[in-house]
Design a protein that fits this description.
single chain, alpha/beta, Urease, subunit C, domain 1, TIM Barrel, 2 domains, eight-stranded parallel β-sheet, seven-stranded mixed β-sheet, 15 strands, globular, binds N-(iminomethyl)-L-glutamic acid, binds fe (iii) ion
Length: 381
């Protein structure tokens, strides 16, 4: 087995919870990696010998980003909707149906190649773990094949048959919920780790969301949820009540929602690229953190509400627009994302964890927000 020593790390973000401080940073650090795992972390001066050596040259090293929310299996683009929003149009859930039509018509090969292109974009921007949802098939065959395609790229596969009610069920939403929790779930549960519901205006209400998530949980899937994106609802509290791993968007939050998130184990995942791309108000992630909730940051990369694959961009937005410190934002996009996926092997640089590391072309992670839009990813390990 070949071991690799990465030394000369000017600043290392470990996020190691045993150290005490949030990002548990080390200066002049080194890491030894063997067989994809971290086997040693310490001072550069005391590093053991290894077969290979990478000199970080004083650069900052952070855990690879854990992007816990994306919709990469789709065809087509909706740049016209974005253009209309920038001159005053509001984002509405209905646009999803346009992508459903194009996705159903696309071949497996076309969908896989679009997904591969986006995963490569993410990787080049420092993402080493990505969750990918279905949700543009909305019938049994197209949801199942979307999950199979997602599975070519990640283990974090989410069944989102309940994205919106497809056009052919407009007059029978209850019938669609029956399909999602019946035949579609039978076909999709074996291919997924998670079940998700878009609980919002124009999508599914809280009762439907409960039915769908509980059906998925009964089949062994973990629950996650889109809630509070387009308006206030009881969806956020439902996610906490059901023990969901994460509730995502949280753009509209009541006092009761904040209390529930602060006292439960459900991660609040904020997606600041969505507010950037829809001109909605940013979620109050500052308030969530101050209340004691766990916050993750993810891209939500999708053709409608937010077509960025860049976690660094989302970090810059979280710092500038949501008042997170750079350290809080980097933690939320690494360790926070890992918690949102119930993963203990990523998001942390410590012995026994996966060696998913990102070397920045900068002396500090602060530069991710200080130098927005600049490609600072020097190397992904
Ligand atoms: O997370 N809100 C629901 N789903 C996506 C948007 C999907 C789309 O517009 O195509 C989201 O924002
Ligand atoms: Fe989403």
């Amino acid at each position: 087995m070949t071991s690799t020593l990465i030394d000369g790390i000017g600043l290392l973000v470990t996020n190691n919870p045993e150290v005490g401080s949030l990002t548990a940073e080390r200066h002049d650090a080194a890491v030894v990696v063997e067989n994809g795992m971290i086997t040693w972390v310490g001072d550069s001066s005391g590093a053991p010998a290894a077969d290979l050596r990478i000199d970080a040259g004083g650069r900052c090293v952070i855990p690879g980003f854990v992007d816990s929310h994306s919709h990469l299996v789709f065809a087509g683009d909706r740049s016209d909707e974005f253009e209309a929003r920038m001159v005053g149009e509001k984002y509405a859930a209905g646009g999803i149906r346009r992508t459903v039509g194009l996705t159903r018509d696309a071949t497996d090969a076309a969908l896989a190649s679009n997904t591969a292109r986006l995963v490569a974009e993410m990787r080049a921007q420092g993402t080493t773990t990505v969750e990918i949802k279905s949700g543009y098939g909305l019938n049994t065959i197209d949801e199942a094949r979307s999950l199979a395609i997602a599975g070519q790229f990640t283990e974090e596969i989410t069944f989102l048959g309940a994205h919106v009610v497809p056009a052919e069920f407009t007059d029978d939403p209850a019938g669609y919920v029956e399909l999602v929790t019946g035949e579609m779930l039978d076909a999709c549960a074996p291919r997924a780790k998670w079940i998700d519901v878009f609980c919002d205006d124009g999508a599914f209400d809280v009762d439907q969301a409960r039915t769908i998530l509980q059906a998925g949980q009964a089949r062994g899937l973990g629950a996650r949820m889109h809630a509070g994106q387009l308006g206030p609802s009881d969806g956020v509290r439902l996610a906490v009540e059901l023990g969901a791993a994460s509730v995502d968007h949280c753009t509209f939050l009541s006092d009761a929602d904040v209390d529930a998130l602060a006292s439960g184990s459900t991660v609040a995942t904020v997606l600041p690229g969505v507010e950037f791309s829809t001109r909605q108000p940013y979620p109050d992630a500052r308030r969530l953190i101050d209340a004691g909730a766990t916050v993750a940051i993810a891209s939500d990369c999708n053709p409608g509400s937010c077509f960025t694959s860049s976690v660094p961009f989302c970090i810059a937005l979280a710092v500038r627009e949501m008042h997170l410190s750079p350290a809080e934002a980097v933690w939320a996009a690494t360790a926070g994302g890992a918690q949102a996926l119930w993963r203990e092997d990523v998001g942390v640089v410590a012995v026994g964890k996966k060696a998913d590391l990102v070397m920045l072309d900068a002396p500090s992670y602060v530069h991710l927000a200080y130098r927005p839009g600049v490609p600072l990813i020097h190397r992904v390990i």
